[in-house]
């Protein structure tokens, strides 16, 4: 009993910190979203959000950006992780350093660097026009495309790391057995490596999607106000409109969206296991 009380005492500062820094602000945000000036409770703010096209468009755009970010990270990150896992230790260390390098630079600095590269007179458009590939500069920023490029740049390392870890855990004897049975490299990749690495791919996709839902800096700068995500709408409601109930309601909806993603993920994992899918999922 004394040992349990001692462990609880060690955990008490962390519990208090979580309560003060997370639980209390979330409870206050929920109360602001449902409280009327006279002290009564109402869901009018949520009904207004669901019936106003500006807000519904923001919700739809948020899920579109998050989904496209996951897709581009999967298309770029999975092959990169496969290469990292298949090369020698020294080259793999260099590639891992390349993946980790963005974490050593501030997000705001990286985002503004991308805006310099992608703007109308930036290096990318200048290269395309100087080489004759295009006749006039392309709109690479202040739109959906620029937002996806920026989000992929930020989220790609977070997708690569769990995929790389999952591939490295695959027993090489299984891959050798597939090759000895006459399986081609493509068939081995499709039937052996990817199913066994599904756990890492799944974890990376969920991580990227959840983080993308509430991302603010990159869509605000590279979207140029033309990609209205929930996070940017919350900022506008607070700083421009001073509409704290609407901003709080959007925050609650964003939190519920994250919870819904985790719940759907849990159901998918259980369904795959019940159907006899990959043991790693």
TrEMBL record:
Q: Which residues form the ABC transmembrane type-1 domain?
A: 59-265
Q: Which UniProt keywords apply?
A: Cell membrane, Membrane, Transmembrane, Transmembrane helix, Transport
Q: What is its main location?
A: membrane
Q: Does the keyword Isomerase apply?
A: no
Coiled-coil regions in this chain?
none
For this entry, list what GO says about its biological process.
Answer: transmembrane transport
Q: Which residues cross the membrane?
A: 7-34, 54-82, 94-118, 144-167, 187-217, 246-268
By sequence similarity, the record places it as follows: Belongs to the binding-protein-dependent transport system permease family. CysTW subfamily.
What protein name does the entry list?
ABC transporter permease
Q: How does it sit in the membrane?
A: Multi-pass membrane protein
Give the matching Gene3D superfamilies: MetI-like (1.10.3720.10)
Any one Gene Ontology cellular component term annotated for this protein: plasma membrane
Localization recorded for this chain is: Cell membrane
